[in-house]
Design brief:
This protein is α+β, with helices and mostly antiparallel strands. It contains seven helices and eight strands; from the N terminus they run E-H-E-E-E-E-E-E-E-H-H-H-H-H-H. A hairpin with a 2-residue loop joins strand 4 and strand 5. Helix 2 crosses helix 3, helix 2 crosses helix 7 and helix 5 packs antiparallel against helix 6.
């Protein structure tokens, strides 16, 4: 078998050959192996703990990190702290405008394409869900799960709570936005956007808008229904578990 250096791996552009390691080329017959070898790209040696996932990166959202500040800029009411860590540019901001040599915080957003990490140095976002909001969210999740199960529309108040929940996920303007995101099992932004359309229709339908209800019934599969169900179940389970 023409496997070359076994401490590297072959990434093949064609879908059925993705992440074929040199040591595993023997599992392909001769013709397919030759086809695979024509479409290979050499990649750097894998480090300990790395996988063959091409999306592999050293950070996760919610992770606590500390970085050395290389540059500081004042932008309006904020001071921006910039540094480098594991090949990524790391940015944080603060209203205090202190001159810092190092910054500790937690990751709120990752941009893998531009290799950017955004860090929050306060606990805003990771705080517990307030008791009033928790009560409303629990009733809302039960109401929406009931709608999926029996087609019984949630109340107008439950639909409005769902609308506020979607806004919190998108705007990140509540002190518990990340806590809510985790409780819903980290929904994808493109899914949340579609769910916003569903919830807006639910608000209208809960007030007696027949056209909105008809649209929901005809196009529900268009709005990542299964993913919405999983997120609501995860949220409801988290809100109702014994503390």
């Amino acid at each position: 078998m023409p496997s070359r250096r076994s401490n590297q791996y072959i990434f093949v552009r064609r879908h059925r050959f993705k992440n074929v390691t040199p040591n595993n080329l023997w599992t392909l017959d001769d013709k397919i192996e030759q086809e695979a070898l024509r479409y290979i790209v050499r990649r750097p040696e894998l480090k300990k703990g790395e996988t063959l996932n091409k999306q592999n990166q050293p950070f996760t959202v919610g992770q606590d990190i500390e970085f050395k500040v290389d540059k500081q800029l004042d932008r309006g009411q904020f001071r921006i702290y910039i540094g480098k860590l594991n090949g990524y540019t790391v940015k944080a901001q603060s209203k205090d405008k202190d001159r810092l040599k190092t910054v500790k915080g937690w990751i709120t957003h990752l941009d893998r394409k531009d290799r950017l990490v955004f860090v929050n140095i306060s606990e805003f976002g990771r705080e517990p869900i307030e008791s009033d909001a928790k009560t409303r969210l629990e009733a809302m999740s039960a109401g929406l799960l009931g709608w999926f199960a029996t087609a019984t529309l949630p109340s107008e108040e439950e639909a409005m709570t769902a609308k506020q929940m979607i806004a919190t996920l998108q705007r990140r303007d509540q002190p518990y936005w990340f806590t809510l995101t985790v409780a819903m099992n980290h929904p994808k932004p493109e899914h949340v956007k579609r769910w916003g359309t569903v919830v807006n229709l639910l608000v209208k339908a809960s007030t007696g808008d027949a056209a909105a209800l008809e649209t929901l019934e005809a196009q529900e599969d268009k709005y990542f229904k299964d993913a919405f169900l999983r997120a609501l179940r995860s949220l409801h389970k988290e809100l109702t578990k014994a503390t």
